[in-house]
Design goal:
The chain has 96 residues and is mainly α. The protein has one domain. It is 64% helix and 6% strand. The chain contains two helices and two strands; from the N terminus they run H-H-E-E. Strands 1-2 form a two-stranded antiparallel sheet. Strand 1 and strand 2 form a beta hairpin. It is rod-shaped, with a radius of gyration of 24 Å. The N and C termini lie far apart (60 Å). It comes from Enterococcus malodoratus ATCC 43197.
Length: 96
């Protein structure tokens, strides 16, 4: 029975290590999510400040980009960003 007990101890230790690793991964994923959101907010703040500094509004920006109705942003993962949804570039829109 000594071999079975050793294997059970090893299994229990490994199960505890796995649980700890999963908890660490969960924490790290939350940190990444928070940092990603902060980075995106800073990107929006930069664009917004550039518009203010240049005396531009969203229509001016869209005309400059060559799109009158929508723009595809590299950070939006190919999603179309409508002018009406992000008119202030501050990340505060009517949609959730």
């Amino acid at each position: 029975m000594g071999k079975i007990e050793d294997l059970q101890k090893r299994r229990n230790r490994l199960a505890k290590e796995l649980e700890k690793a999963e908890q660490t991964l969960k924490k790290q994923n939350e940190i990444c999510k928070t940092k990603r959101a902060t980075l995106e907010q800073l990107d929006m703040d930069i664009v917004s400040q550039l518009l203010v500094d240049k005396g531009m509004d969203m229509k001016d920006l869209m005309n400059m980009l060559g799109n009158n109705n929508a723009a595809v942003s590299p950070s939006s993962n190919g999603k179309v960003v409508n002018e009406e949804n992000h008119s202030n570039l501050g990340g505060q829109s009517d949609e959730v």
